[in-house]
Amino acid sequence: MMYNIDIQSPEFVKCLERGEREAFQRLFEMYHKALCFFATRIVRDSLEAEDIVQDVFLAFWRMDRGGFPNLKTVKTFLYNSVQHRCLNYLRDLEIRDRNYRNLKREELDEDYFLCQQIRAEVVAELFGAIDELPDKCKEIFKRSYVDGQEDKKIAEELDISLNTIKTQKQRAKSYLRGRLGDLFVYAGMFFPGL
């Protein structure tokens, strides 16, 4: 039943408020990757970032969720909580000064965090679209653009022709261009050679 509810609908927020696990799972799936990317940009440690995001979701699950009128306020809460925990983590480790110097003062303002949030959401959107590719096409795309393998090596490992690799890569690009629209322009920033 839960999976038929539009995540943008007021009913979805009500399901979260009532503590329905399926709603929480949907929320987690929707924002987990983007929040991890966002946290990693701040703490410069992907494992620690993952822990911070897990802690935020756990805290959200345990809290009274009655104060959220819509999904946008939930999302804002999640990003603000992750940002706050990341900065606390830097302070607690007593490496705040070194990290702040690395980040540069102007990067610590709201524009920096907003920029990182937008970037994280673009990455989440890209990976979401990649996950929609047919299995073989997706595997070839990831090996080529995410892992940086050469076409020849992919062809050998998958025991398929070089032409098939090129065709599948073209199919993937064509699908992603249509699926992502204007966002496709940013794909090259994250996947060199695209």
From TrEMBL:
<keyword id="KW-0731">Sigma factor</keyword>
<dbReference type="GO" id="GO:0016987">
    <property type="term" value="F:sigma factor activity"/>
</dbReference>
<feature type="domain" description="RNA polymerase sigma factor 70 region 4 type 2">
    <location>
        <begin position="129"/>
        <end position="174"/>
    </location>
</feature>
<dbReference type="InterPro" id="IPR036388">
    <property type="entry name" value="WH-like_DNA-bd_sf"/>
</dbReference>
<dbReference type="InterPro" id="IPR014327">
    <property type="entry name" value="RNA_pol_sigma70_bacteroid"/>
</dbReference>
<dbReference type="InterPro" id="IPR039425">
    <property type="entry name" value="RNA_pol_sigma-70-like"/>
</dbReference>
<protein>
    <submittedName>
        <fullName>RNA polymerase sigma-70 factor (ECF subfamily)</fullName>
    </submittedName>
</protein>
<dbReference type="InterPro" id="IPR014284">
    <property type="entry name" value="RNA_pol_sigma-70_dom"/>
</dbReference>
<dbReference type="GO" id="GO:0006352">
    <property type="term" value="P:DNA-templated transcription initiation"/>
</dbReference>
<dbReference type="Pfam" id="PF04542">
    <property type="entry name" value="Sigma70_r2"/>
</dbReference>
<dbReference type="InterPro" id="IPR013325">
    <property type="entry name" value="RNA_pol_sigma_r2"/>
</dbReference>
<feature type="domain" description="RNA polymerase sigma-70 region 2">
    <location>
        <begin position="27"/>
        <end position="92"/>
    </location>
</feature>
<dbReference type="InterPro" id="IPR013249">
    <property type="entry name" value="RNA_pol_sigma70_r4_t2"/>
</dbReference>
<keyword id="KW-0804">Transcription</keyword>
<dbReference type="Pfam" id="PF08281">
    <property type="entry name" value="Sigma70_r4_2"/>
</dbReference>
<dbReference type="GO" id="GO:0003677">
    <property type="term" value="F:DNA binding"/>
</dbReference>
<keyword id="KW-0805">Transcription regulation</keyword>
<dbReference type="InterPro" id="IPR013324">
    <property type="entry name" value="RNA_pol_sigma_r3/r4-like"/>
</dbReference>
<dbReference type="InterPro" id="IPR007627">
    <property type="entry name" value="RNA_pol_sigma70_r2"/>
</dbReference>
<comment type="similarity">
    <text>Belongs to the sigma-70 factor family. ECF subfamily.</text>
</comment>
